[in-house]
Structures are given as C-alpha cells and as structure tokens.
From TrEMBL:
Naturally occurring in which organism (per UniProt): Vreelandella sulfidaeris
Pfam families: HTH_Crp_2 (PF13545)
SUPFAM superfamilies from the UniProt entry: Winged helix' DNA-binding domain (SSF46785)
Top-level taxonomic group: Bacteria
Coiled-coil blocks: none
Name assigned to this protein: HTH crp-type domain-containing protein
InterPro entries reported in the protein's UniProt record: HTH_CRP (IPR012318), WH-like_DNA-bd_sf (IPR036388), WH_DNA-bd_sf (IPR036390)
Taxonomic placement: Bacteria, Pseudomonadati, Pseudomonadota, Gammaproteobacteria, Oceanospirillales
BP GO annotations: regulation of DNA-templated transcription
Residue ranges of domain HTH crp-type in the record: 17-78
GO molecular function, one term: DNA binding
C-alpha cells in the first residue's frame, strides 16, 4: 500500500511539477529514506545514483538533471 502511494505520487509529480521541483522532491525523498533507515546523521549523504538514472526515473534527460541540480545548489548559496 505504501509503495502504491509512492508510485502514484511520483506519477503525479511528473505531470504537475517543473523539472527542478521534481529533482528537489526526489532528492528529499532519498534523503528521508536514508535518514529513516539510520544511514545518515547529517544533511550530507552519499548519492550513488547517476544523473542518467535520476533522469529516467523523473522523465527528463541527464543534462536537464544536471542543470536542475546546479540551479538548486545556487539557490542554497548565500
């Protein structure tokens, strides 16, 4: 049931959100899962998933994933 809800939310995200928002949501989802499993204890974590795989999961190109991640990183800079 939980996996069904996650799948539905991911599909909804792909059709209703901009690419940058989808990438941010995906990164936060991975972070939350790692945190829940006790795999991290800070705001920094290893991300062993390639941009190509992220793009395939989110329905965008790996180049666009890279641009989105760069934009998100720049938003975080003071």
């Amino acid at each position: 049931m939980v996996n069904d809800n996650i799948a539905i939310e991911r599909l909804r995200s792909c059709t209703h959100h901009k690419a940058e928002e989808r990438v941010a949501h995906f990164l936060l989802e991975v972070y939350a899962r790692y945190k829940f499993k006790g795999m991290i204890d800070s705001n920094v974590f290893a991300f062993p998933i390639t941009q190509e795989v992220v793009g395939e999961l989110l329905g965008i190109t790996n180049v666009h994933v890279s641009r989105c991640m760069t934009a998100l990183e720049q938003k975080d800079d003071p």
